[in-house]
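HUMAN: Can I see a protein plus its fold?

ASSISTANT:
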Amino acid sequence: MANAGDSVLDKAESLARRILERLGSNVDKKIAHADQPVLGSSQIGDLASRLEHLVDSSLKEDERGMRRLAPNRFKVLFTYEETSALSPQYIEAVGKELTATVFEYINNRRYATHGPVDVTAERDLFAKSTVVRATFDGDSNRQTPQDSPVLREEGLRKATFTASDGRTYVVELRTEGAPAYIGRAAGNAIRIDDENVSRLHCSLSLRSGGAVVIADVGSANGTYVNEKLLGRDEARLLKPGDVIAVGDCKLTLSGID
């Protein structure tokens, strides 16, 4: 019998594939020459995922008290190192393609906005890492979770994981924001290319008190924390030093900032 969550996972994987095709292939055909460097599909997929999470975590209440008013102005600030070889025209085109993705995401979830959706991409000479920001029309002074020092302290945590192969992953989690996922599908916060890992394997969430919790989301082979299997409906607290086993990959939580 097919897993009840298969249709949801199929849709998620299909959407990720369409995003990568549109943001990768289409931009390349419009702007890039044969010898011009372009952003990799993993970079584009990560940007799309970050923008979607930012939409969900920045929602405000509408006039009826429903939390469905989304920001409509977004800015992506690339580091000089990762875009020094890219033309300004190419960077601008990436912003336009991301605009289509964010608009589709907002529209599909029946969110409302105070104005047209717009994503601009720029190079920031002083940025140490790629930054994604969001604002609302008519509320330009409002700081979003990524910009606000108060929310960074109280409502935002960065969990750092070290994989068994030596790679490091930094996952941003926000209180009341969408969970971050670990799995095989493109667009996950931590993508593991392992046939023993499900497309959406487990999730990471931030509780109001600042605690990071992990839960299995119906994976085929289960999720282990310190060699103990997570229960079907269990959400287990994580602390630095804990080791998560997903398929044949082990991730050690090295810190929570």
About this structure: Residues 4-9, 23-34, 140-153 have pLDDT under 50 and may be disordered.
